[in-house]
Design a protein that fits this description.
This protein has about 400 residues and is α+β, with helices and mostly antiparallel strands. It has 19 helices and 15 strands. About 50% of the residues lie in helices and about 15% in strands. It has a 5-stranded mixed sheet, sandwiched between helices. Strands 1-10-9 form a 3-stranded mixed sheet, with no helix packed on it. Strands 5-15-12 form a 3-stranded antiparallel sheet. The termini are far apart.
Amino acid sequence: MRALEEAPFLDVFSPEFTENPAPVVDELRSSTALVRTPIGVLVIRRDVVQALLTDRRLRSAVPDIVRMQGVSDGLIHQLVGDSLLAQEGDGHARLRTLVNRAFTPRAVEPHRPVMREILQGLLAPLYERGRCELMAEVADHYPIQVMCALLGVPDEDHEDFARWNTALTWVLSFELGAHLEEALWGASQMDAYVARLIAERRREPRDDLVTTLAQAEESGDRLSDGELRSLIAGLLFAGFDTTRNQLGLAMALFAERPDQWALLVDRPDLVPQAVDEVMRVSGAVGLAPRLTVEDVEIADHLVPAGTLVSLSLAAANYDPSVFVDPRDFDITVVRAPHHTFGGGPHYCLGANLARAEMQEALLQLTALMPTFSLDGEPTWRTPMGIFGPQTLPLRFTPGTAALSA
């Protein structure tokens, strides 16, 4: 076993790496599974990433990343600390047991008509124009409206949630310190609203997700109001930001590969497979941050307790030991499962919901724009955190199916 100092060093904050990490990672992966970084270590081989996602000697580092940026108390610290992302062991297992049934494929399926209705409302104004800014006109609204509809939030409050979520996007980035006031405003607004919503559903249950979660029970155990507030806020945040960015990444990727889009237009049966291929090639979540709770041997190196271990989900999705031609985007190829949803105890709770939202979006968009192209250069969000386009201008010829709808 070698000392950690013997591992190759990679400056993940350098412009050269952030602008084009793929060739650097591919070269390093051929000789090592682990590299040192300015803030810990980065794991870049799929087999090692997969093993560490289930290793109990590592825990979620999300609360530590928040503390690293000077947030050691207050509402954001509390909401992050109480979230499913941060919980471990028996506490995490208890919360998952109580809420998992609300996110099974069977539980998600009845929500698809709501997704279609929301999408049709967003896309209808675009039919005659033949151009749009996809993020501002569709992606910024679709996932938050879906999540609000499922939770039972009134239509007139959806845009408030969109603004609060936009402010909260900094919480899971490395730029929280610079945007703390904005994030705190979003957190306080959402927390107060969610507290009122829970109280209302306790008094008057309805057929919505807040009521389902409030009534969730296992062997006499139920979620407390504090746990519900953190869980629902987490669902609103994660359900908005990841799906928003994933939809933008999908359309940016298809803009580069019009042959794949044409295939999807002709073969809507490929949509489920296309969603998974998009998430493998261009996932909105590229890292799973973990912290070692004891000394751990990783890829023949001794990693001391208290080390930040970033598991590169993106690198795992491109590992040539598992994927043939891993850099090729091909929606017809049946591949091994991707790791964009993570793995182990922290596998994404809303994975089935996110897949359904993406599938419905691609079905509607292929009807709206059977051919499309970029209408200018996209702009991009920070790559250190949840990644995706800030703006994505598109030009298209409206499809006859969309116009008739």
